[in-house]
């Protein structure tokens, strides 16, 4: 379930091999899973990931912003947000859009961030989500976690990637 076809993984350069991207996407997966299942172990796994990478003081600030961002994402979305299982080292389209949203905020690319937010939540109520992503992006940058920008070409490739439900 966690392996992509070789031709696809080689054509898309964005995986979870980079520290900042991995923490954001695994954090998103874990926080969404915690809401979906009601299992606090999902949130504890996220906390442990961030604590291990950043130390408890910095992790507290970043995870707090991550939690706020996911809470806003869930409140503002007009559809179900898809994600791959936690151990998968690849991303689905929604995860890539979420990462592009935060990365756009971190890089000062507000139009890109807003467009990503609009595609991600499938409605026009993006202001709160962008604000929450800006707060997360700032804390990530403060913690030394710089995200790579995600290009239109990469997003096009992600639109061809199988949805998580298709892998079940």
Topology:
Layout: H1 6-11, H2 19-37, H3 40-54, H4 56-76, H5 93-106, H6 110-121, H7 127-142, H8 152-159, H9 164-167
Helix pairs in contact: 2-3, 2-4, 2-5, 3-4, 4-7, 5-6, 5-7
Order of helices and strands: HHHHHHHHH
Query: Helical content, roughly?
Result: 55-70%
Shape: globular
Write down the overall mean pLDDT: 87
Radius of gyration: 15 Å
Percentage of β-strand residues? under 5%
User: Helix- and strand-based class?
Assistant: mainly alpha
Please report the number of helical segments. 9
Report on the structure:
By secondary structure, the chain is an all-alpha fold. The chain has one domain. It has nine helices and no strands. The longest helix has 21 residues, at 56-76. The relative contact order is 0.18. Residues 1-13 have low confidence and may be disordered.
In short:
With 168 residues, this protein is an all-alpha fold. The protein has helices spanning 6-11, 19-37, 40-54, 56-76, 93-106, 110-121, 127-142, 152-159, 164-167.
Write a concise keyword list for the protein shown above.
single chain, 168 residues, mainly alpha, globular
